[in-house]
Amino acid sequence: MCVKFQTNAIANSRDTELGRSKLRKSKEEATMRLFYYVLLGIFYTSPAGAARRQQANGTWIIPDRINELKMRYLYSFFNLQTDGADSGRHDAERPGPAPCKALPGLSPGQGRLCQLYKDHMNAVALGAKQALGECKHQFHNRRWNCSILDDVNVFGPVITIGKFSSQSELFVLPAKVAQELIPLLQSFLIPARMFGYNPWIYFINAGIAASRESAFAHALAAAGVAHSVSRSCRDGQLSSCGCSRMGRPKELKKEWVWGGCGDNLEYGYKFTQNFVDVREKERKFKRGTREQGRVLMNLHNNEAGRRAVIKQSKVTCKCHGVSGSCSLITCWQQLANFREIGDYLRDKYDGATEVRVNRRGRLQLRDPQVSIPTVYDLVYLEESPNYCVRDSVVGSLGTQGRPCNRTSPDVDGCHLLCCGRGYNTVRSTLRERCHCRFKWCCQVECKTCIRSVDVHTCK
Amino acid sequence: MPGTILENLSGRKLSVLVVILLSAQLACFLIGLLSPSPATSQGILSTVCVDDNPDADNINRWFTKQCKEIHLNQEKATVGLDAKNLVFVVQMPRHDILDFSRWQQNLVGVLQIDVVYQVEQKLDPIIELTLDARLAYSDKTSTGGRTPWQYYAHAEEKRYMDCSFEDTTIKDKNGYPYNCSMVPLFELGAISHDYYLLNLRLPYNYTVQKNTGLGRIEDVYLHVIHMNGGFTKIWISLKTFFFPIIIAIMVWFWNRVHILNRTPALLEYMLMGLGGTLAFLNLPVEYLTLIFDMPYMLLLSDIRQGIFYAMLLSFWLVFAGEHMLIQDNGERNTLKMYWKHLSTIVIGCLCLLIFDLCERGVQLLNPFYSIWVTPIGTNLALSFIILAGISASLYFIFLCYMIWRVFKNMSIKRSILPSMSQARRLHYEGIIYRFNFLMLVTVVCAALTVVSFILSQVAEGQNKWDENMDLELTSALHTGVYGMWNVYICAMLILYAPSHKQWSADPICAEGEEVEFSRLPTEASPNEISSLTSFASKASIE
Predict the structure, then answer these.
(1) Which of chain B's residues have a Cβ under 8 Å away from the Cβ of A326?
(2) Which of A186, A447, B286, B520 is the most buried (most CB within 10 A)?
């Protein structure tokens, strides 16, 4: 297998092994309870609490739904804002760089990059979050509603769980949350434990199919990070952005006066190239194996995602020559709104190409009739599951309980979305804002409209 | 009898000269490859600050990045705020560790305002913006700190922004961006301070229609463009290199003319004038900007370039006119003869000068000023530019007509050539050949200028995504063209300087194919610069 692959991770799993053997002496249920306490503890933890858990080791995967919780943990840790959780950061401070050891799920290579570019990590995390939000937006009315993003999350699906020094850090859980979490924990953690090795590898290689959705998610995550890094570049948050070589701050000024700083989009692209791809590149597999194919697929889709950011950017020019003529002209790339990038990648998702890995360890078209995918196109190795029923192995949550559109013949229509199982209809009254008038800066004058609608949900 | 060096230079010497000039030209181009691109832009995301006391009447109240910050995409954060509470803050340069250098010459600021779609909101395709912009500066102190922000400029300006919403197929348009044009904000002719700070407000006032058409703004970026220090260095060194050379050549040229004991010909005056304007253009006054605050540098360099181009265009006219191969009378040609043609140049240049004074002259007082925002200003600017365009086209019609006549005359005279003696014929053929060669050089230079202009536009405008693009083509094109006109004018001055070979000796029949001049004594008028013209009159006598 991958001998060199993440000595940390192996050490971690060894630790877990140790911890596990201790725990095995007690009852099996106690193990479960600990994990679930810990996960919920993370969810309900304050930044201060998170900081104390830096020494945590031991590696576990977490299931899809928990990912959001994890992201929250991450953001609270970074002192970043989650959706409306703490609106309006009125304090003057900007979030300080996050200590890399505390970041869960970084691969060894990423860990090293994190050490080098500490101030970039906020942007990376924001990018991952942005990608997740965009994915949910793009797929909110499809069978797969972006329920799996762990695998492509740049931090990986791994969360660190610590050996707690004192019981005081465990929290008493509200029963409702516990109810929601237990089935998830059972479905995801137990299969992982059954494999004796690093659960993450299990997760990546067997857990989620190398499907179209995975391709999209990889591309979107890479795009999210590239976009976010480029953007924070413009914010002046990244000390070295665009002015190349980090290690020579003394010459930075000289370099800047001589040739200015490079384009921040290019910087975002290059940083993401290093940061996201390193995790694929540090794993070595035998040529032509499925795992190697998966690595190639991920690399290709990551590149497609980054390119999407560039492709969607607009080139804008300004003439500033003699009398404002165009004898001197300067152009720059204007970062696109992430929504546009998401739209573009969704189109690419619809037109993704199925490939397979050949014996020489290269990707090859499965159907020679179709045209060869470019760097901008997405590729996948396996057909997607239909996502109709819940299947933790392929990472499908099923469509049960999902709202659908009765009249639409499209994927969001009840017939397709519910996979022919039929739907329930409930009549409900909606109060919404309508006839809005916007007044710069901060007022939206709206009327409230009340309408009654039928809400259909899949059986 | 004065001939020019061009006619009397042997083929070998001429080729040596051409090789020297061409290698100088090549060197200019190669130097450009070493330098970075002429200018860089830096996109800076503005920080949105809350001004709790918007009515305070203190011009030196500055908001920096360390302020009470909010994010416009969070509706909750902006509740209860008014347009005058929001201040968009941009600190230049982007990174705190960097500061501006005087080598970066000038600063141009362009605003990018990201407007997103709101439910059921209709935006006009052209939005009128009212910008309350304030600029402050700060300098490094010797102890490593910074001086407090000092007032630099303040203005409330109007701008227009075109916004379009392209994709109508999207179902859920909320949050989709409008495609809005850039808004030019300011131009600073000199970077004399280390740091600049922009505080921008977008006041709302329904009664006077301020910013009433504005939609939901998500982000405001400021793109600042400055010259690159590296390019400035190379540019100034080019100027410093060419300036003494052109002066030396001018001195030498004028000496030559004075040795002749005759009044200089018109073309010689024109050549001197051309050399003078080039020397003026080459004069490296940019060195002074490194010491003094010279915000009028932009205007000055515009004027310098304008004078040079006006002189070059007039020179071409006179050059073609003086080689008409027709000597109607023995009278000395003066500029008065060309008044029709030259007036087109004068009018065109004056128009551009007035336009430039209106735009860049006013910008000396108010860096946020733009002539294009008021309808009167736009009309005025447009009419000046159109007038300049008309005179430019008139000029080119004149010039083309004259060149056409020169070539027609030449072909007529050429038909008489076979009836001449062989030595003389060879010589005259050589003159025509060299004249044509120089005409060709002019055309090639002009064509190269146009081509490099287009190339530099393309090179800049294309989506720069080539990882191994280390060479900078744009600046190479700039230095190449600049060097080319220097070389061209040097060549003109050298080749059209009076030759000393013949003015002492009487025509002697040389042996073999060696060319000699046997001129008819009657038409030895001292005002002819080129024996080509004397050839023309002689041929007509023959």
Answers:
(1) 457
(2) B286
